[in-house]
Amino acid sequence: MKEEKKYKPNELKQYILAGLGIGVVLGGTILFSPNFPIIIGSILKIIEEVKGIKIPKKKVMRVLKQLEKKQLVNLERRGNEVYVTLKNKDDVSVIKYSLRELLNLKKKKDWRGKWFMVVFDVPEVERKKRNYLRGFLREIGFYPYNQSVYVFPYECEKEISLIKKIVEGGKYINYIIAERLEREDQLKIFFGLG
Which residues cross the membrane (predicted)? Predict the structure, then answer.
C-alpha cells in the first residue's frame, strides 16, 4: 500500500487557500460576489494543476473544517457535493496565496523581454500602508527595484488591478510596462531568465 505524503504544518492550508482564492479570482467573482460557492472537487483540480500534486479529499475536508472554525470559510452540503464560500471576499491572506500561485504560473512562460512595474507613492503619513505594500509585493514574487518600484517579468495587469482593490494604499499604485531597464542583469538573475 502506498504511503501518504506528509505535509509541513500549514502547507495543506496554504494549498487549499490558494486553490480557493484562484478559483474565485479566475471565476472573476471575488470583487462582486463574496458568497460565490466553489465545489471541493474544483479546489482539488486547481491544486493539482497549479502545484502538480494530488491531495486526498478527506485531508482537504479536514483542513476546510478547521478554516470554517476559524471563520474564514463556510461549508454547505448540497446533495453529494460540498460547497465552499469565503466569509470575507477581501481576505488578504487568501488573495496573497492565490496571487503568489498565479504569478508563479506565469513564470513558466517564455520571457518576451518586457518588464512590468508597480510604482507607488504612498504619503509619509501612511507609512504603515507603504511598508505593508512593499512586503506584500515581495512576498508574491516581485523584485524590489527601489523602495517604491517593484518589477515582474510577465504581464500581470489583472493581478495588480486586484491588489489595488484589496490592499490599503492601492490607490497610490500605478502599473507601467517598460522595454528596457538599467541593471537588467540583476533582474534576469533574480527571475532565472536566460
Answer: 12-32
Chain segment 116-170, per-residue pLDDT in tens: 999 999 888 988 888 888 888 888 889 999 999 999 999 988 888 877 776 666 7
Domain 11-94 classified CATH 1.10.10.10?
Answer: yes
Amino acid at 96: K
Single-letter amino acid code for the residue at 125: V
Closest CA to 154 of 168, 131, 175, 169: 175
Sorted by where each begins, the domain ranges of the chain are 11-94, 108-191
Q: DSSP code of 5?
A: P
Give the span between the Cα atoms of 85 and 76, in whole angstroms.
8
Phi, psi torsion values for 149, nearest 5 degrees: -130, 125
Closest C-alpha to 21, from 58, 66, 73: 73
Class of 108-191 in CATH: alpha beta
**Which CA distances in Å does 45 have to 62, 165, 190?**
17, 27, 30
pTM for this prediction: 0.62
